[in-house]
Write a structure and sequence with these properties.
Blueprint: E1 11-15, E2 18-22, E3 30-33, H1 39-50, E4 54-59, H2 62-75, E5 83-87, H3 93-107, E6 111-115, E7 118-119, E8 125-129, H4 146-164, E9 175-180, H5 187-191, E10 195-197, E11 203-205, H6 211-218, H7 225-240, H8 254-273, E12 279-285, E13 289-290, E14 300-301, H9 302-313, E15 324-327, E16 330-333
Parallel strand pairs: 3-4, 3-8, 4-5, 6-9, 8-9, 9-12, 12-15, 13-14
Antiparallel strand pairs: 1-2, 6-7, 10-11, 15-16
Helix pairs in contact: 1-9, 3-4, 4-8, 7-8
């Protein structure tokens, strides 16, 4: 799919010799961006506000979230999209339930969800899930915080998505869910033994070696959410009893990679479940980006990643896919996990 033209967004109209593309969204289009008080989430929220959407910026820390929303409001040109903050901890069921109730009662729904996983669009709904964590340094691989990593990156993203699904507006322009993920959770990268140099120049091999897990994740017809939950539970159990090493799990940022394996697989199933219901589900890997998670290392800035994420979230309806994993701007089929 060629995306260069699609990133112009909107409907084409002719005025003399000039071609204008009117956006498909309006100021009533609601975009929810989780984990948006800093990094890629903050950059994405700012870009969506610049484009005129109504943005709900969420974060666990209320003071930081309020400050981030205020900074976007102060910087955006007058008259563009509204920006509001709402506290949300995706790993806390009570917080997720309260947030979903607020979206229903105050906004009437959404259009886009973006999670860091991300959520966008409640009116013309969109969700961008960007609330994600990792506790490892670039060159370390501890699983000390594995339960927190899985609870936030997978269980939290899934819980929030399921809570907000009834509120998506299913407009003709199509509601959108964009999960910020990682190629560490792609089987095709892992199985191909792709070498990714780290900052010290050491080549790191990513590979899910367990044949039973590989067969399960590749069997699209039989894979279920229960299977994915079972994989996560098995990993956490092996971490708990200290037997996870040598069991075929990815060898780099193991807990983070497993969380993204689970998120990618869930996103694939969700895209299939929602087929024909005017809700698209895609994942986006921004690559090695300079954020707090990477301790400032990376090939690109959070602002660059946020710009591309916004472009994917705002694709014109006719160009909007579902069930895809985007490595930067290049879509890959989930079936090629």
């Amino acid at each position: 799919m060629a995306l260069s033209h699609a990133f112009n967004h909107g409907r084409t109209t002719n005025t003399g010799s000039t071609v204008h593309r009117a956006p498909w969204w309006t100021g009533e289009t609601v975009a929810v961006v989780t984990g948006a008080n800093r990094g890629i989430g903050l950059a994405l929220a700012a870009r969506l506000a610049e484009r005129g959407l109504s943005v709900v910026l969420t974060a666990r820390d209320e003071a930081r979230g309020e400050a981030a929303a205020a900074a976007i409001r102060d910087a955006r040109p007058p008259g563009l999209g509204a920006v509001r903050f709402r506290r949300l901890d995706v790993a806390d069921p009570a917080s997720v339930a309260a947030f979903a109730s607020w979206v229903r009662d105050e906004l009437g729904g959404l259009d886009i969800l973006r999670q860091a996983c991300v959520i966008l669009n409640l009116i013309d709904h969109a969700q961008v899930n960007n609330a994600g964590v990792s506790f490892n340094e670039i060159d370390t691989n501890s699983v000390e915080h594995a339960e927190t990593v899985l609870r936030t990156n997978f269980h939290g993203a899934k819980m929030l998505t399921e809570a907000l699904l009834p509120l998506f507006r299913r407009a003709p322009t199509t509601s959108r869910i964009l999960n910020i993920s990682s190629q560490l959770g792609l089987l095709n990268v892992i199985s191909a033994l792709q070498k990714v140099p780290n900052v010290a120049g050491v080549h790191i091999h990513h590979k899910l070696k367990d044949p039973a897990l590989r067969r399960m994740l590749l069997d699209e017809a039989a894979l279920t959410e229960r299977d994915i939950e079972g994989m996560v539970s098995r990993f956490l159990a092996e971490v708990g009893d200290g037997t996870w090493r040598g069991r075929g799990w990815p060898e780099v940022w193991t807990d983070y990679a497993v969380s993204k394996l689970a998120l990618n697989a869930y996103s694939r199933l969700l895209a299939a479940r929602l087929a024909g219901e005017r809700v698209s589900v895609n994942c986006f890997c921004p690559g090695f980006t300079r954020t707090d998670m990477t301790r400032g290392f990376g090939k690109r800035t959070a602002e660059e990643a946020g710009r591309v994420a916004a472009g994917l979230a705002l694709l014109p309806p006719r160009d909007l896919p579902t069930g895809k994993f985007f490595k930067w701007r290049t879509p890959q089929l989930y079936s090629k996990l």
